[in-house]
Amino acid sequence: MNNSNPYPDPLLKRPALVYDGDCGFCRRWVGRWRAMTGAHVEYVPYQEAGGRFPGITADQFEMAVHFIEPNGRISTAAEAVYRSLSFAPGGGWMPWAYARVPGFAGVSEKAYRFVAARRRGFSTLTTVLWGSDPSPSSYWLTRWFFLRALAVVYFIAFVSLGVQIVGLVGENGIAPAAASLERARASLGSEGYWRVPTLFWLGCGDRALLYACWGGAAAAMVLFLRILPTAMLAGMWGLYLSLSSVGSVFLSFQWDTLLLETGFLAIFLAPLTAFPRADAERAPSRIVLFLLRWLLFRLMFLSGLVKLTYGDGSWRDLSVLTFHYLTQPMPAWTSWYAHHWPSWFHEVSVAIMYVIELGLPFLMFGPRRPRQWAALGTVFLMVMIAATGNYNFFNLLTGALCLALLDDAFLARFLPARMRTRPATSQRPAAAGWSRTAFLCVFAATIVPIGAAYAYVGSFPEGRVPDVCRDVLKYVAPFRSINSYGLFRVMTTTRPEIVIEGSEDGATWHEYEFAWKPGDVMRAPGFAQPHQPRLDWQMWFAALGSVQRNPWVVNLMYRLLEGRPEVLGLMGVNPFEERPPRYVRALLYRYEFTDAETREETGAWWRREYLGVYCSPIERGR
To answer: What is the pTM of this model?
Structure first.
């Protein structure tokens, strides 16, 4: 509502919002609005206004806020709030909607009166949702922490891959990158350059693969030091995409695509300057922060949703943890203990997991406090997962994404006082800022629906999207930077393991021991994280299928017959150190954890049962 001021203040140089200074709820929200509008609006408690506005009585001021403009216009209640917030960035739509959208003004005024009559209750709600200070969140420290956390994850990923890459996809590795690129060129022609985006089209020898890994690790260290952040992030994304594109089955895990998608978004969050200074940085983009939250939402919510939509009954009856610790890809020694927890504890744990994965993600788009709850709940789940299994850098990466849910007010408590000061906002030309904002809006408008389409397709076994959406998904899929997620959608209830043996005469066989996956029943499962032993991981998947569906296992056996040091370096114990064996075969066993009594008597962590031949003996030279 508005009218003309019969007694305009000739000294009023800027609009003024007059409010009840005795109302604690009003003071808190005025503090928030003041931070949003800056010096463009004056905020005056009516108790201190004196005779500045003689045409308005104290009773009128107490009934509703008044927005008084230099031209004599006076607005009250909801309209006063909207007109004051029109001076905040992006707030111009509110008075426009109030004046032009049918029903908007009426609903707004009713909502204002409803809240005004219940200030005490809404003050409590404000504390619950925003804390004691509802001022707008800033994200300088959020970016500071997030980019460093991402640098650490990138460093771990590149170093972990660097010590394995030659044995996995090198010239004499298990699945040579050169051969896979040659097949892509032969089958796809020039389209292969788009379908397989990688720098290794220029050359994929062992040295090039190693340069990519160690170059990425070096870039991560430079990023950690806040030097050339945008360039380092773009370079690491390009290198990791190049490695993933030629990594065959060994770089096809969801955390590899999660790292690529996170790293891609981080490029647009980083400061554009080569050597960022606190007094010259542009404020972190809230659009990119939203996209990071959208990514974390999809990761967590879809991981919970697929457990219900893919028809695995063990998730629905809460019994899944009675065997998960045994059957997960790479158990740790703590998994043995977790496996023997009582059934009721397993069921309660699954129920808590559902709350975290299906409930908390919706809080990620809420006010400050709900976002904190979502972050803390997600981190709690990641800690529990990391404590009972080996999931390499996945838990750290998810924790890094949780930083996007936190603001400076929360993170500042973990820093010394001298580092808590908010930097001054860059004074760059407004046109440049609007250009960047417009680009990011278009960017977000593109990514969100594509991510939603991926989410739909990946969450339902029969999920289908319109042909135009399918074409778009096909177009962006090779870049692995907009993905569908959903961990452990179908569970395995037993643990088959492949055991590879070698022999000189075909009669006496000696077992190859892998570094991390179960083998010797007397050896305790170890903690490999944050390193990912990719061969050991992939052996778990191979054991669930046949050798015909996993031809790379045959390649592995041939490399063992050849005694390739780069492949043997991926293994644990080599029983043929002097010379390679003449024969190699692969057997299949079922592994189970021993019970407490057996382990106390024998020291064995595992017991195993022979199931049959996985791959018949292969002779050297044939």
So the answer is: 0.92
**Whether pLDDT at 250 is above 90:** yes
pLDDT of 52 higher than 90 = no
What is the Cα–Cα distance from 467 to 605, expressed in whole angstroms? 52
User: What DSSP letter does each residue of 447-463 carry, written as one string?
Assistant: HHHHHHHHHHHHHSTT-
- 51: burial class by Cβ within 10 Å (0-12, 13-18, 19+)? exposed
What is the 3-state composition of the chain as percent helix, strand, coil, each rounded to the nearest 5? 60, 10, 30
CA atoms of 406 and 145, how far apart (whole Å)? 10
Inform me whether the pLDDT recorded for 470 exceeds 80.
Answer: no
Identify the pLDDT of residue 560: 96
Residue 365 pLDDT class (50, 70, 90 cuts): very high
Residues above pLDDT 90, as percent of the chain: 71
Alpha-carbon gap, residue 362 to 364, rounded angstroms: 5
The DSSP bridge partners found for residue 592 are 607
- Enumerate the domain spans of the chain: 2-130, 140-309+345-385+393-479, 495-619
User: Do residues 233 and 270 make contact, with C-beta atoms less than 8 angstroms apart?
Assistant: yes
SS3 533: coil
H helical segments located in 270-320: 286-309, 313-316
